[in-house]
Amino acid sequence: MQHVYDIDVRVPMRDGVALAANVWHPTEGPAPTLLVRMPYGKDVFRLGQGGTMLEFLAFLEAGYALVVQDCRGTHRSEGEYVPHMADRADGEDTVAWIADQPWSDGTVGMYGASYLGMTQWATAVTGAPALRAIAPTHTSIDNYEAPWYSAGGALSLSLVTWWNAMMYAADVQRSQAPGEGTLAQVKELSQAFWFPESLNDVLPTAELPLLAAHGKWWDDWMAHPSHDGYWDAIELTPELENVTVPALNIGGWYDLFIGQTLRAYTTARQKAGSAQARDGQRLIIGPWDHTYATCIYPDRSFGPPATPEVMGLTGLHVKFFDRWLRGDTTALDGVAPVKLFVMGIDQWRDEQEWPLPDTRWTDFHLTSAGHANTADGDGALTTGPPNGTGHDTYLYDPRRPVPTAGGACLPMTPGFGGPVDQRTVAGREDVLCFTGPVLEEAVEVTGAVSLTLFVSSSAVDTDFTAKLVDVFPDGKAINLCDGILRTRYRGGLATEQLMEPGTVYEITIDMTATSNVFLPGHRIRVDVSSSNFPRYDRNTNTGGIIARETEEQMIPAVNHIHHGPNQPSRLVLPIIDRKDQR
């Protein structure tokens, strides 16, 4: 199919600012249009890239027009960029502009990953009339809980420093045209983007010279560590009731947005503003991280069928858009509304809904003889009633944090994110390991995972981390999902409550979700500690403003995990019993 390709088309916004877009449209007849809005430079799409895991040429071959636009204040678009702030209005105006073009048939869909997904939800909540469907991948509807902070209130340090170095480098490079930025600034920020490790060691975090010098949104993010009015203004969850279009929600078990991807799906299923939007929600979760979809990691490989290319992710997009933009009511026949990759058995499985209706929530109680430190300790998991009151103790020293080893991280480097063997970090005395017995039968865990702990500390504030681990017969221990809670936020992210040293508190750590079959001969384990650095910033344990504190102000904390009949610390797992299907 022949297309016209126009570069740097100026799209007017309601305030007079013009945003730049590249436009592909068929030479014959009006066509449905797919829109991608991004802050990373629209011209990467000329290389067939753009962080979407898709072959965008397939959309053109299927007869769609395509518009790829630079967000306000980025690259070739006018205006000033502040993350998220203009995405609602600019998305709405762009959709209206597309619908008014002679090459458009008046219907618009959106797709893309990460920030490109955020712009989709921001547009959808406006109720833009021409918007008929969205396909957000690896993204969030609450930009506090993911990506910039966490569901437990800790700053997503490695991501925040790396991403801001990238965005400020592009901003400075853009400002060179009017003679404001310098080449030296661009080089320094670009170097930090490619080699970001040193950024995470600088304290105070809020005064990190390379980023604080640019101010803008960095100062705002550092000044608002709680989920306060600043974050409420850009959270989209309360506005999902205004969404009237179906969404193809796509995520990865090792993606930093997995919790938000699942939350967007379940919330829209319940609260979206039309029956079509509620019933039209779909969900695909693979064994993917945020950046790479090869499904090959140094410590774990999920095989070629797990990849987006082999499982046909692009084709599923085309079918989805054919259904909702072209009105082909048969386009999705035979396609299940939920598609999950089940790790362990490494297979795709079709489902009808999420959470799975046959989920059996099961408590695995933590127990020990008081020496659960390291994987060689006596920490155990039992599904029987807790007995024998006791506790385990470790020293959390923020000057010597537990290093990040796998998980839903950015930037992705070998050994940092994804599935990683935990044997090294599990050998530390400040990591408690509670391990179940060797399994005689397979145990499937598919759904949300959480850890409820009874804790006390010598400090007025500290963090607690939790990590679900699949222990192989040869001792390899692969992380599945994890979480962190800053105890000042144990009552909610909007309000800080310090602890009374020595007092026992019940807390719950959201460990997001997973889908994994623990095979016979394997063991289920949960690891507990108080740091995961540099994925998250280190709690200084003082109760002060962490982003403003120096290393000299840090104090160690003696932390206790209590367990027993009156203090039933427990791992809560979603057990799926389908032995006849495995």
Number of strands: 23
Distance between the termini: 44 Å
Roughly what is the average pLDDT, rounded to an integer? 94
The shape, in one word, is globular
Main beta sheet strand tally, sense and closure: 7 strands, antiparallel
Q: Could you tell me the radius of gyration in angstroms?
A: 24 Å
Low-confidence spans: 47-51
Strand proportion, as a percent range, falls in 25-35%
Structural class: alpha+beta
Oligomer: single chain
- Helix fraction by DSSP (H/I, runs of at least 4): 10-25%
Number of helices: 13
What does this structure look like?
By secondary structure, the chain is α+β, with helices and mostly antiparallel strands. Helices cover 20% and strands 29% of the residues. It has helices at residues 57-61, 87-99, 115-124, 144-148, 157-175, 183-194, 209-212, 217-223, 229-232, 258-271, 275-279, 308-311, 313-325, and strands spanning 3-12, 18-26, 31-38, 65-70, 104-113, 131-137, 248-254, 282-289, 296-297, 300-301, 338-342, 347-351, 360-367, 380-382, 390-396, 432-435, 443-457, 463-471, 477-486, 505-518, 523-529, 557-563, 570-576. A hairpin with a 5-residue loop joins strand 1 and strand 2 (18-26). The longest helix has 19 residues, at 157-175.
Summarize the structure.
With 582 residues, the protein is of the alpha+beta class. Helix content is 20%, strand content 29%.
Give the arrangement of secondary structure elements:
Layout: E1 3-12, E2 18-26, E3 31-38, H1 57-61, E4 65-70, H2 87-99, E5 104-113, H3 115-124, E6 131-137, H4 144-148, H5 157-175, H6 183-194, H7 209-212, H8 217-223, H9 229-232, E7 248-254, H10 258-271, H11 275-279, E8 282-289, E9 296-297, E10 300-301, H12 308-311, H13 313-325, E11 338-342, E12 347-351, E13 360-367, E14 380-382, E15 390-396, E16 432-435, E17 443-457, E18 463-471, E19 477-486, E20 505-518, E21 523-529, E22 557-563, E23 570-576
Parallel strand pairs: 3-4, 3-5, 5-6, 7-8, 8-11
Antiparallel strand pairs: 1-2, 2-4, 9-10, 11-12, 13-14, 13-23, 15-22, 16-21, 17-20, 17-22, 17-23, 18-19, 18-21
